[in-house]
Amino acid sequence: MENITALGGDVYEIDTKMAGYSGITAGYLILSDRPCLVETGTSTSAPVVRDALASLGVGPDDLATVVVTHIHLDHAGGVGDIAKAFPSAQVVVHEKGARHLADPSRLMSSARMVWGDSLDTLFGEMTPTEAERIVALGDTGAIDLGNGRTLSSHYSPGHAKHHVGLIDSATGDLYVGDAAGVYLPQTGDLRPATPPPDFDLQTALGSIALFEALGPQRLLFSHYGPVEAVKETLERSAEELRIWVDLTRQAHAEGMDLDHAVAMVRDRTKERYAALTSEDPGVAEQFELLSGAPSNVAGILHWLDRVSP
Question: In this protein, which residues make up the domain named Metallo-beta-lactamase (predicted)?
Fold first, then answer.
């Protein structure tokens, strides 16, 4: 299938075709003795993901584990649907996210407040997962991939308080979720993801430092794809966070409202991203959908109001 890319080490990237776009959100299948899906994508993407797994030979009873880096709808919105389609799979999530997978009602109502009517086209509705199938992780944990291969999870908040990074013992691949920002393979751009309400600068920088300390061989971004230049990318990720925070802090100090702060930060950062000067307007649109300036600036302002009202 054209939306599956073999990455080596029995790892397959699946384009979940979020909201019909290509290259927005990736799920990853580790086709080990105990097959594991990392990230489900949205609920509207669940059929795409199920078909991709089937084409890789993973039938309804073959998937051992579904693990999500965090419970935001572009990463975990499809968990309930995928759990139904693969009834033998355990569902693994950080303990701070577990109850929201069992009962998504609060998660869905807060998402609807943020996204309004575009929620349905972008994400669809998360369906509940039976509580007895959910495995809640503490700050570290290990997922058995079979044959002595493990996927170790490491608590990495800052983007979200229920976020984990996952490292594969066989490949050294680190699944970074959103904790290292959003990567655009077409242009090599990297930009932070700092939505409300959980963003916290020191915590986010701490998670990036933890990722560096894990010594990964490769970073696998949920948005989007594999990156080999680990050290440079993580350094860039920390630098981007600092730049967005410094600019937003300046807007905050000048008493700007959200719209003016967004316009200022967007203007002062646009030179940093080839996507925004690209001939192809689709690339810029993709970037804004993934790491929109309004959501980033709102998350940083929310944090600033907590730490320096």
Answer: 24-223
